[in-house]
Design a protein that fits this description.
Layout: E1 3-7, H1 17-23, H2 29-40, E2 45-52, E3 55-67, E4 71-81, H3 90-104, E5 109-110, H4 119-127
Parallel strand pairs: 4-5
Antiparallel strand pairs: 1-2, 2-3, 3-4
Length: 148
């Protein structure tokens, strides 16, 4: 099994859609595609791809910002690995690559959100040295008030 990790170029960003739909199953596919295309044009965003034997098997968006309380930071977002490779140390390799990559870009911290109904991810992040410092709140402003 050959593992390769790299930043996905903007012109290839739609290759993340099959994995992303596993995480965002309530979002209509066309809307998800439109959002991904819009996000890919934002200057403080990149998407890391984890490839196994040349096939995309994991993704993590990377949002960069500078925060008054921690300095330059990155937020991994829409992190997903194919189910068949979970529990094999590949996520650890992916996050080790992310750590080294964002350090090389001058980041001083990583902060992320994890869905409350995903305790396996919480355990993973704890084991990777993450701590809980707060809660993530969301207010949907659309008239239907739905999360998608």
């Amino acid at each position: 099994m050959k593992i390769h990790i790299q930043i996905i170029e903007e012109e290839n960003i739609l290759t993340i859609i099959p994995l992303l739909t596993k995480l965002n199953s309530k979002t209509p596919p066309k809307l998800l595609e439109e959002r991904v295309l819009e996000i890919s044009k934002i200057s403080n965003y990149e998407c890391a791809g984890l490839y196994i034997d040349g096939k995309l098997a994991g993704i993590s968006g990377l949002w960069y910002s500078t925060r008054h309380y921690i300095g330059k930071s990155v937020e991994p977002d829409h992190v997903i690995l194919e189910e068949t490779i979970r529990g094999k140390g590949i996520g650890k390799k992916f996050f080790n690559w992310i750590d080294n990559y964002v350090i090389s870009k001058g980041c001083e911290a990583i902060e992320l959100n994890a869905y409350v109904n995903n305790p396996k991810s919480h355990k993973f992040y704890y084991n990777e040295g993450y701590n809980i410092y707060g809660f993530h709140f969301l207010k949907v402003l659309r008239p239907d008030k739905k999360f998608y």
